[in-house]
Amino acid sequence: MTSSTTSAPTTGTPYGTLPSASPLPQRKPVSLPRLHEMRERGEKITMLTAYDATFAAVADAAGVECILVGDSLGMVCQGLSSTVGVTLETMRYHTESVVRGLQRVQATAWVIGDLPFGSYHESKEQALRSAAELMRGGAHMVKLEGGGWTAETVRFLVERGIPVCAHLGLTPQTVHALGGYRVQGRGDASALQLKRQALELQDAGAAMLVLEMVPALLSKEITEQLKTCHTIGIGAGKDTAGQVLVMHDMLGINLGKNPKFVRNFMDGQASVRDAMAAYVAAVKNGSFPDNELHAW
Ligand code: KIV
């Protein structure tokens, strides 16, 4: 065989392989104290979901502080009609993939693993076993949905050294009980209940609280009443401590109609990384979300 028929050595990395030797990190690892400092100085916290190594590494490179390995993966990766069917085993698999991707490029994001439906409902002990599974997979924090009964579980996990992000408002794991993907906290009684549950979760030690599809004014009030628990909004207006979107939504990979609270950040951008950087910039400069367009 002559040299002209031998294939030339490849110069790029195949299959989108992440580089194993990356530039030194541009920021210190994101930690709870650093997130707290951001809140203190009024800097918005940015969060995106990611479910695999590459997208997680790209999100980190774009400046996203927190990566949520959300059980929304059931819908965007597995094709389920809700998050109810997602298992703990699947969550661990995706958490490990995300963490591996971040480690490979010496990335610095804070990783939150979502506890799936049925993995923390039985008892505090079951919640601890499930949380330990995700922490062993590399998560820095776990997230669980709901208020009231969950406060005791949050306290149990936090006392055992597991940082917890709570989730109130539209809680997708209970979508059937809620009667669909609807705005929550409308009306005095419902708003009061959300405020009370948010305080209970802070008191139990939750360090973050996702507020999903909650009227902007109510989430502003909840944010103001919570000093050590940082609110992260999705369809909750601009006045939360931070924002989160499902990655597929903000990249416009949605054949249906996007929910009102989503902006397609891919519009006008040349790459996924640019789109994610545009999201980070828009959240930080307060131009996203716009209460007139993306909130109730
Ligand atoms: O699972 C998820 O992605 C979530 C976000 C919608 C906050 O919980």
Q: Can you walk me through this structure?
A:
With 296 residues, the protein is an alpha/beta fold. It has helices spanning 32-40, 53-61, 73-76, 88-104, 124-136, 150-159, 175-178, 188-204, 216-225, 247-250, 272-284, 291-294, and strands spanning 45-49, 66-69, 110-114, 141-143, 164-169, 208-212, 230-234, 242-245. Strands 1-2-3-4-5-6-7-8 form an eight-stranded parallel barrel, surrounded by eight helices. It is globular and about 60 Å long. The model is unreliable at 1-5 (pLDDT under 50).
* Biggest beta sheet attributes: 8 strands, parallel, barrel
Query: Order of helices and strands, N to C?
Result: HEHEHHEHEHEHHEHEEHHH
- Oligomeric state: single chain
Helix/strand structural class = alpha/beta
How much strand content do the residues show? 5-15%
Count of DSSP-assigned helices: 12
Task: Give a brief outline of the structure.
The protein is of the alpha/beta class. It starts with 31 loop residues before the first helix and ends with a helix. It contains twelve helices and eight strands.
Tell me the layout of helices and strands.
Layout (H helix, E strand, L loop, with lengths): L31 H9 L4 E5 L3 H9 L4 E4 L3 H4 L11 H17 L5 E5 L9 H13 L4 E3 L6 H10 L4 E6 L5 H4 L9 H17 L3 E5 L3 H10 L4 E5 L7 E4 L1 H4 L21 H13 L6 H4 L2
Parallel strand pairs: 1-2, 1-8, 2-3, 3-4, 4-5, 5-6, 6-7, 7-8
Helix pairs in contact: 2-4, 4-5, 5-6, 6-8, 8-9
The protein binds 3-methyl-2-oxobutanoic acid (KIV).
The site of 3-methyl-2-oxobutanoic acid (KIV) has 11 residues, from strand 6.
